[in-house]
Amino acid sequence: MTSSTxxxxxxxxxxxxxDVEQNLDVERVISAESAARPPxxxxxxxPPVYHNLSIHVLxxxxxxxxxxxxxxxxxxxLATYDGNSxxxxxxxxxxxxxxxxxxxxxREMIGRFHEPLYxxxxxxxxGSLTTFSGWQFEVFSAWLNIPGANxxxxxxxxxxxxxxxxxxxxxxxxxxxxxxxxxxxAKKIIVPPPPSRIVVIGxxxxxxxxxxxxxxxxxxxxxxxxxEATAALLFAFPGALTRxxxxxxxxPISRSVPLGTLAANSFATALVGxxxxxxxxxxxxxxxxACNLLQGLSDGYCGCLSTVSTFVLEIYTLKKGxxxxxxxxxxxxxxxxxxxxxxxxxxxxxxxxxxxCHFSTG
Length: 362
Fold this sequence. Notes:
Blueprint: H1 21-24, H2 32-36, H3 39-42, H4 55-78, H5 89-105, H6 107-113, H7 115-129, H8 132-144, H9 153-186, H10 197-212, H11 214-220, H12 226-250, H13 259-279, H14 288-305, H15 309-317, H16 320-347
Helix pairs in contact: 4-5, 4-7, 4-10, 4-12, 4-14, 5-7, 5-9, 5-15, 6-7, 7-12, 7-14, 8-9, 8-13, 8-16, 9-15, 11-12, 12-13, 12-14, 13-14, 13-16, 15-16
C-alpha cells in the first residue's frame, strides 16, 4: 500500500473546525471524492462554519448518541446466547469502527453538506456504538473468570488476551476497510445542497425534544425495558457530551497522546468497576430502581463516555511509535483502574463475582 492510496486523517474527537492538525501533528483528510469533483461543484458556496460549542453541534449529539446506544444494546442482545463463539460486544465495536472509517474519509464531503453532521456520525453515533469501558471490563472479567467457567488460571489468561487482541485487531481492520470502501463509494455520491437555516433550527429543536422524551419513555414503557434500554437512554447524551468536551479541551495539549480521549476512556472504565461493585455488594441489598439506574449509568453514561472507534482512529492516525504507545498506555491504565477498584472488593468478599442486583420487571 502506498501513501497515494492510504488516506490520512485527523483524530476524531478533537472535533475542532480550525487547524487541529497543528496540535495533533496529522494532515487533514483529502479524499478521492474531493479530487474527482467537477469544477462547478468545487465552486459551490462555502457552507457556514459552526463553533465547537454551537447549539447546533451539541444538539446533534443527542439523537446520534441515543441511536448509537440502542444499536450497541441491540447488537449485544442479538449476539448473547448459549454457546456463542464470539463475545457480544465484538459486533458493535466492529460496526462502529467501520462507520467512522467511512465518515473520516468523507469528512470534507459531509462538511460541505452540514458540518455538525460529521460530529453526529463520528462522535455521537460511532462513539456511543463502541465502548472502551465495556471492552476493558470484558478483559478483566476474563482474568478473574467472573462468568464462573470451569477453567484454569492459564485459560483465564488466554481468554483475556484473546478479548484484547481480537477487539483491537477487529476494530482496526474494520476502520481501514471502511476508509478504503468509502473512496470507492465517494465517486457515486452526489452531495446535496446545505440545509437552510430554518431546517437546521428545526433539527436542533427536534434533537432537544428527543432528549426530553427519554424521561417519560423511562416511566411509561414496561419496567422490564428499564435495565435493558430505557435507563441507558437517560445517560447516553451526558456521556457523549462529556467525552466531546474533554476531547476538544484536552486533545490539543499533547501531540503524542490524545489526553481527552484517554481521560474519557479511563474515567468510564473506573466508573464501570465502581458500578459493578455496587451491583454485587453482598452486605447490602440494592433496590430494584437503583439497580435499573446503575445499569443505565453503565450502559448509557459509561458506554457513551468511552469509545473504541475514536481510540483506534487515533492509533491509526498517530505515528507508528506514538500509536503503539498510546494503545498500550490506554489498555494498561484501564486494567490497573479495574484492578484497584474491583480487586480488593472481590478478594475481600465485599463484592461477589455474580451481581446481586434484582431488576424491576413490573
